[in-house]
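Review form for a predicted model. The reviewer records the input and the model, then writes brief findings.
Reviewer: anonymous (R2)
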Amino acid sequence: MSLMNAHEALGQALAEEMQRDSRVLMFGEGVATKRKDLLEAFGPQRVRNTPLAEGIIAGTAAGAAATGLRPVADLLFAPFLCFAMDGIVNSAGKLRYMSGGQFEFPMVILAMTGGGWTVGAQHNHNIEAWFVHSPGLKVVMPSTPADFKGLMKAAIRDDNPVLFFMDMALGFEPGEVPEGEWIVPLGQAAIRREGTDLTLISYAKTVHTCLAAADALAGQGLSAEVIDLRTLKPLDEATLLASVRKTGRAIVVHEAGALCGVGAEVAALLSEKAFDALKAPLVRITGPDAPAPSSYALEQAFMPQPAAIAQAGLDLVQRDALVGR
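Model under review:
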């Protein structure tokens, strides 16, 4: 184990995969400047800066993947993906199906998202649900440095396009990262804390918010289980259903807005497949349906906070007591 932050863990994953497979290359906005160690190790043919032209970057990645390479393309901030939708969604996401499986698109699109850096609405917009809704794509949002490494390695090796979202607030948070061949399979959630009274479901930075809420609930005598989705698509239905069937209550938490968000899909899944086990209505705690503010104080108010989650958990259990469940 080594102590490192998410940026370092990603760099280690990239270096290991580029060493393992000569088809892996990285390009995008400032990558050769930010990751000079990779540039020195693998040269400008495999690590290169690009113009600030997201549509061209995504189209180049799709073309490279179709010809047998395994590109990792960094588009910096998630809202910039608006300029890259055709290459990602309409080409890479669909052409494997349209070719009858004759083509593969092993490409990773890396982008930063979420509050914490006060970069304003045009740089901070949680748009992961857009890509979850797009056929042919996979979507990951890690919460720990170890998962940044393990999920990146799994994404590079996957034969489908993968959207890899880095929550900005987690970029420099340290954590233990396994050395060497550490892979986190896509589609496998993690139980970060076991509990019996209710389930808190989240991903990215709000996993840590849920863990803080679980600590607060423990002080009230309630045992909260915390599930880290890690991969938003494919979704680990089995882990979610097993947990909620055990606890009977669930709160889904994410920074993105509620309308048509990942939490809505999780709530629908639990309602459809675990309704008989539910002791209380499902609850979503999300960001508002509004552009992200650039003020730090307003940005914190924009994001779900532990106190709100803990209060929602208390309300769920107290509601059960009132109705005699």
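Findings: Residues 154 and 185 are 6 Å apart (CA to CA).
Further findings: The mean pLDDT is 94.
Recommendation: see findings above.
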